[in-house]
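Example (one chain per record):
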Amino acid sequence: MGALLALASALSYGLSDFVGGLLSRRASFVRVSLFGQVGGLLTMMLAAPLVSRAVPPLADLAWGGLSGVGTGIGMTFLFRGMSRGAMSVVVPVSAVGGVVLPVLVGTALLGDRPAPLAWLGIAVAVPALWSVSRARATSAAPAGPALTDGLVSSVGIAVQYLALAQAGPEGGLWPVAAGRITSVITALALSTVLAASGPGQATDRATSDRSTSDRVTSDTGLGLWWPPLGGGFAGVLAGVALACYLVAIRTELVAVAVVLSSLYPVIPVLLGVTVLGERLSWRQTAGLVGALAASVLISTA
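Predicted structure:
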């Protein structure tokens, strides 16, 4: 059951990224991100009392709050990296780093001991995730700044997963709700600091390196969505993803749950093919096959 919930988390995260990516083509990614955080916060504040009416332990709320700080850092630097026109660098670096770091910490410090078959699945998942996320490089934008943003984003994503894994089951969904509060605060603070430090190195969107969720959406009409509504919906999906992950780690190893949850880039790629009529590169096709094999190996271990 834990593996299935982790895969459900990946599905929700993937849908959230797809919706948010499409909306970012028509509105500022800062606005879309903020609406998303608010949507996730409202959803979790409504859902948490339904799951547990008891006052959650302070420690669980603190871990949830730290997880939200990681979310705010991860998303802010991910969006900034993509705005610099080197998405083929920042997306795979943040995704793979967000997997590798929790696995290393889980095995070294938390006592995780995945089965041999699960280790094989993890070994397959990491390069598969890189291949799926790696878009065609069509931009001359320098990779250095985006690489730095991707690395910082990966640390934030790792903190998000690791901190939330420390919350006990008695906290219900309250740790996720607490994390939505701190993620909003963190994202706002970082956006203010980064905006004050300079305008950045954003490039022309028409010629920048684009990931699947960044394709022009005028043909589908999705670009006409109202940002508050669409961004809020993306936030709801992200909140559901974290809730599924939180429940998954109560019956599954952190290293396993993180890897399965982190397969979310597969979803925007598949939707790009089926909804936007995009074509896969051979690397993405190989990555999709590898991701499917990894999910089967880990789930059956």
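Caption: Residues 2-205+222-300 form one domain.
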